[in-house]
Amino acid sequence: MRGAVVLWVVFPVAVLTSGCRTVDTQAPARMGGAREVPASVARPSGPMAYSEEAHATVQNILSRNVPPDDVTSELIELFAGGEAQLAVEASKALEGRQLTEAHLGRLEAIVKAEDARTRNISPRGTDDFTRVPLERAWEAWADGRLAGKSAGAGVEWLIGQLRGQLGGVLRERAGRRLEKIGDPAVPALARVLQTDKGSAQVSAGGTLAYIGTPQARQALERWALPNLDGISDPRLLRATVFWLGKVKSQAAFDPLDDFLQKHVDDQFGQVAVSALHKINGEKARRTLAKFIATCTLDSEHEYAIATYVAAARELARLGDERGKRALRKAASSRIVQVRRRVANAIYLGLGEEGRPLLVKLAGDADPEVAKQGKWWLNELHIRAEQRKADDARARAH
Length: 397
Fold this sequence. Notes:
- Helix 11 (234-246) packs parallel to helix 13 and helix 12 (253-262) packs antiparallel against helix 13.
- The chain is an all-alpha fold and 397 residues long.
- It contains 19 helices and two strands.
């Protein structure tokens, strides 16, 4: 059929379904700003559970005695209803079907409409699937547009998505496809990082960090290291520090060490702590221990507390007793803001050893402290049960 493409003849990039990637707590995600989502709450449930009604709707469309193009058009319309289950079933049914230019044009219109509808929704929660129709429609549209393109043309189309006017959800999905492409996408991403501003620049840098190859790391270093002290956009600066840690840039260690000394009392300190630990934990040990030793922890300043707790957490991860003592001290602090911050750090830094501290926090008089303590105590229990199940499976085999 002239003017048609087959959905399974796609650009050689894995189609990515909606999901949740965990990141370091207090660190920006691939595009900046997300917090860690514990694995225990990232499981599909609620609106994304299998729906017999949605499945029956799609099967009814597929069974109609009408031209194939009309069936495809009806499947595409299911993305426009805002129903997550219908969008999931429709995306499955579209696999292998021919898409004409008319189909692709309709998908593009739905993508733009859904993007406008969901853009002002609060940041995604673990059970928020309002964006699923948007994501699935974009994936189908992208598959169609990339089908038959050369590798270079495919990269440029995805770069156009990063630079376009669509929202961050779709820029992230384009970034994930570029991430799958890997090194062939690095020159184009480096160009965006060097020349663009705003969301496109953040998206390009995050994608390079998650590609993570030596070529991608060098592209980040060429831009970031000369500009680190001159980045005025807080979101971009925070993300840049995270990216340098993500790629374990040895060349960035000393600049980030200096950076930490200047930013212990602001929003960038905790990210610098995590980056230094990722780049070279042993080398960072001295810096982190010195910071903890000189911090009195008698301030209610949010960022100073966050940096202290991050330093204690990373030291504890190294097995350093100074970090463990600092976490115990924080759990008993008279300053409620400190106690509110420390539960997650205890979970990450001490693991099972921190159980008594989490029990203590769970019984705190402050409701937020108690909530955090109970949450991470439950996560510790889940992790322990999972470990037992894994051990049982290993013994059985």
